[in-house]
Every structure is written in structure tokens, then in C-alpha cells.
Amino acid sequence: MFIKTQLILLALISVVLSQTDDEESFLFVTKQTVNRFIVQDKDLTVKYGLYNSGPTTIFNVNLNDVLSYPSEKYEILVGTLTPKWERINAGANLTHVVVLKPKQSGISNSSHAIVTYQKSEKNTEVQKTYSSEIGDVYIMTAREYDRRFSSHVIDWVLFTAMASPCIVFPFFLWFKSKSKYESLLSKDKQTKKAQ
Amino acid sequence: MKLVRLFSFLTIFGLLFFTTRVVYGNEDQIDADAEVDEDEQETVVQPGETIAPANDILEGKEDEDPNRIPSSPDFRSVYVFIQPAKANELVAGKLTRLLVGARNNGTQNFVVESIEGSLRYPQDFSYYIQNFTSLRADKALEPSLESTFEYLFMPSETFNGRPMGLVVVINYRNSEGKRFQNVVFNQTINLTEADEGFDGETFFLYIFLGAILVLLGFVAYQYLLSNRIKRVTGKPSSQNQLGNQQVKGSYDVDWIPKHHLTQSRSPKKNPSQRKSRKTASDASEASGTGAASSELDD
């Protein structure tokens, strides 16, 4: 009992965090967007994470996500949607990043990526696996994004221009009366001194 | 000062009261949810294929319920926590990412419907404490295919440093429409406090306390200073001839700038001149000013 718990703890602490029953390794594939807001004609970074949880090294890993990002809707700026890797060691992490540019705005559904791999060197059978999905994402237009996040310099300039009369006019009134009073006071003093 | 203190105490107690109220509110909701859940799927708590915790509390409670949803032998599920990395120490109030892997070993399609997670009372796993938003997948899994699902949830901050039973189940159906359920994760975990480098709440609490201290110090300083000045200025003024004036006019001459004093003295001389003139002209009219000038002459 105690040894078993120890073993479980060890297994958890070690890099391998899997709970595979059999000897086969399992490849976890995640797919995420790094961007919080996806904007038309602006960079969209998609991150694929591959994690081999199993006891064996997996081979011939092919990722394919062309179906999620068709070329008529997305433009690839950096990276490829069909990367290949020779092997992923057991307990190893692999991250793949693609930078895309959405051409259209609106709601877009990005489905799973398909990954094929071999479970071990001997096992030539090709295993197919789906990644996690991002799901429906809303691609906002550049104008909408600007309205929400741009610095609004022109707006502020206009605002100050419109607001300044309300402040400047009373200030001038006050300043006029003040200077008038001050000149009166100085005149008074001068006359006193003269006396 | 007292008012401020009273106010701060009131706010603190009010906040405490509010938080406890919120917690109770949550529990009520969850209870209602739990009842619904229990109707639908009774005692989902049973060790699945993938779960083999040696210290499972539930082993004794493994009474087979006829109503529970069975798990298909052809469906395999694995999990891995990617945030945080330690599965048995989740951070309360922080986003937790759990990857659930599913594999179809059978010959017919499975449709993964949803993944549900919940926190249970560690002594009694049928008692729900917090339900997490379920992940609607609706993903078809063909034979010998694998799929990864990313399940995100956030344990409530109120369960800081408490052991909790975390149960994550995956619901799926086969092509005939028969429903199955696998328990992906079923373990007692510890919820730890998030060790943030900067906590805004405590930071502003300390600032507030510091401000109170500074204010107290300032008030004390002012009080002491005013006392000392009174004592220092009081002694020599009583010895001086100015003390008389202070008593008479009920003002402290020290406060008045020098040039004002010289100015005010110059008219003093005038009434004496005037007096000499006025006493000569008519005595009845000068009675008022005469009284004042006589005082000044003393």
C-alpha cells in the first residue's frame, strides 16, 4: 500500500504525468489561440502543443490543420499547417506555432487538427488522433478593434477643442477682473506712498 | 479618527459577512444542481478503467447502483494536467487545464458528448460542492481513433487549502444511441492558495494602515507642538509689558507682523494729539475717546 502510493507520487512528480494502463503511449494534442481578440487583417497566432505521455517514443508525427484554416479565409504568414516531426520522445513536449491572418470577419469555426503517428518503432500501424478544438471564434473587423483599443488621439484633440471654450471664457473673465483689481491696488499703494 | 477606525472595522466585517453570504449562496445553487444531477445519473462515482488510486476513499463505497451509467469496455480515457503540473495540488481561484484523451478501441463509432467536472465533499463523494461548466464536445470518434479534449475549470477561491474530491467524467454514446460514462479523474486533491507576487487587496490594506498611522502621528505631533508653543510663548509674554496688552486686547502681539504693529502704533499717537485738542474744545464729545485713550496711556 505504502509503496504503491510512493510509486504514484513518484510518477506524478516525474515528468511523465500519464496514467496509461497498457504499454501504448498516448499523444495529447492541444490547439489554442494565443490572441485574446482575433481581428481581421491582424495576426492570429495558433499554438499546437503535442505531448507524448506514453512509455515509448512515437515516430513519424504528421500534423495537418489545413481543413480548419482554408486558404480563402486565412493567409499564412509564418509557419506551416502541415508540420512533420520524425519522433517525439516519451514525456516530451512539442510546441508548434503558426501565424495566420484572417481575411474575413465574423464568426469562424476552427475545428480540430488531425495528427497521425506511429505508436512505436515496431508498430508501423498509423494512429490517427484529433486535437482539442478552439471552437467558434469571433473575428472582429479592424474598425471595431480600433474603436475599442486604439489610442483615440484625434478624438481627444477634438474633445479638448470643443471643451476649451467652457474653461477658457470664464478664466478670461476672472483674469480680467483680477488684473483690474491688481492695477487698482497698485495705484492705491502708489498714491499712499506719494502721500 | 475613531470614526475612520469604526468605518474600517465596519467595512471589514461587512466584507466578511458578504463573502460568507456569497459562499452560502453558491452552496445553495450547487445543492439544487446536485439534486438534478443525482436524478439523472446516480452515483457517478465509481472507479473507471483509468483510475487506480491506491488510497481511494471510495473503495469501500463501491456499491453497484443499477441506475448508474455504464462505461464501455471499448472506450479508453486518459488524462494529464498541464496547468498546474501537479495533479493533486490544484490552485484555488486559478484556471486549471486538464487534457482528457479518449480512444475508441471498438468497432463502432462513439460520439463524445460532454465532459463534466465537479468538486465533491471528500468524505462523501455524492455531496457536490462546486460544479464546473461542462465542455460540450459532440465529437464523433471513429474506431481506433484518438482525440484530445481540453477541459478548463477554475476551483473557487473559497476552498483555499482544503482537500476536495475532484471528479471529472466523460459522457459519450455509441452509434446505437446508448449512453456511457467514464470517470476520467476521481481523486481527493488539495487546493492550495495561489502565491501571487503582488496582491492588490493586501497592498492597499497596508497603504490604508500606513495612512492611518501617518495621520495619527501628524495629529499627535500637532497636539504636542501646539502645547509646547503655548508654554514657550506664554512665559515670556507674561513677563513682558506686552502681556498687559494681550490681556487687554485679547490678542497675541507675537502673531502680528512688525510692520503692522508700527502702523497701528502711529494712529495711537494721533488720538493722544487729538485728545489734547478735543479736551480743549469740548469735553462731552470726547468722553468715549477719552476713556479709550486713558486706557492706552496706562
From TrEMBL, chain A:
Transmembrane segments: 156-175
Keywords per UniProt: Membrane, Signal, Transmembrane, Transmembrane helix
UniProt signal peptide: 1-18
GO CC annotations on file: endoplasmic reticulum
One Pfam family matching this protein: TRAP_beta
Name of protein: Translocon-associated protein subunit beta
UniProtKB/TrEMBL annotation, chain B:
Entry function: TRAP proteins are part of a complex whose function is to bind calcium to the ER membrane and thereby regulate the retention of ER resident proteins. May be involved in the recycling of the translocation apparatus after completion of the translocation process or may function as a membrane-bound chaperone facilitating folding of translocated proteins.
Low complexity bias locations: 281-298
Coiled-coil segments on the chain, per record: none
Region feature Disordered, mapped onto this chain: 48-69, 259-298
Domain of life: Eukaryota
Segment forming the signal sequence: 1-25
Annotated Basic residues bias: 259-278
InterPro entries tied to this protein: TRAP_alpha
Bilayer-crossing regions: 203-225
CC terms in the record's Gene Ontology section: endoplasmic reticulum membrane
Localization, UniProt: Endoplasmic reticulum membrane
Family: Belongs to the TRAP-alpha family.
UniProt main location, coarse: endoplasmic reticulum
Keywords: Endoplasmic reticulum, Membrane, Signal, Transmembrane, Transmembrane helix
Quaternary structure annotation from Swiss-Prot or TrEMBL: Heterotetramer of TRAP-alpha, TRAP-beta, TRAP-delta and TRAP-gamma. Interacts with palmitoylated calnexin (CALX), the interaction is required for efficient folding of glycosylated proteins.
Pfam families cross-referenced by the UniProt entry: TRAP_alpha
Topology class, membrane: Single-pass type I membrane protein
Protein name as catalogued: Translocon-associated protein subunit alpha
Organism this protein belongs to: Rotaria magnacalcarata
